[in-house]
Amino acid sequence: MEIDFSSWISEGASAGRFEIGPYQGAPVGTDRAPGYVLAYVQGGGLDLIRVTGRGSSIIDSRPGPFRLEDKKTHRLEWTRRADGQMTVALDGKEIISAVDRAYNQDFDGLRLVNRGGDYIVKQLKVNGTQ
């Protein structure tokens, strides 16, 4: 998956959180559907999270700070191979490499969640599903 986006924050505003990730099934109540979430906290870092019916856990985390609030477009690339190997690159630089084999079935969709930030998604591309 590739996403080109910009993150904006007004002076004096509190930092927001942008989440993206594939999911299986459907959410139950207010819970997230099972799958993965890549979360960026404005001015902070990135968390790679596994979401299951029993809750969520961080697979890997990079504290940053990744200061993306510079009025420029940034590219986030996230790959996951069939063997569970995942890599995340930001602007061409690999920042996360982790293995998780929790999900072997196809994903049903892709979530984009804005938790209090100002983001502009310029392009989103999913490159294959196997």
Task: Briefly characterize the structure.
0% of the residues lie in helices and 55% in strands. With 130 residues, the chain is an all-beta fold. The strands form 2 sheets. Strands 8-7-6-1-10 form a 5-stranded antiparallel beta sheet, with no helix packed on it. A 5-stranded antiparallel beta sheet has the order 5-4-3-2-9, with no helix packed on it.
Could you explain the architecture of this structure?
There is one protein chain. The protein is mostly beta strands. Helices cover 0% and strands 55% of the residues. The two termini are 12 Å apart. The chain has strands at 2-8, 17-23, 35-41, 46-52, 55-62, 74-80, 85-90, 93-99, 109-115, 118-125. The strands form two sheets. The protein has a five-stranded antiparallel beta sheet with strand order 8-7-6-1-10, with no helix packed on it. It has a five-stranded antiparallel beta sheet with strand order 5-4-3-2-9, with no helix packed on it. It is built from no helices and ten strands. The chain is globular, with a radius of gyration of 14 Å.
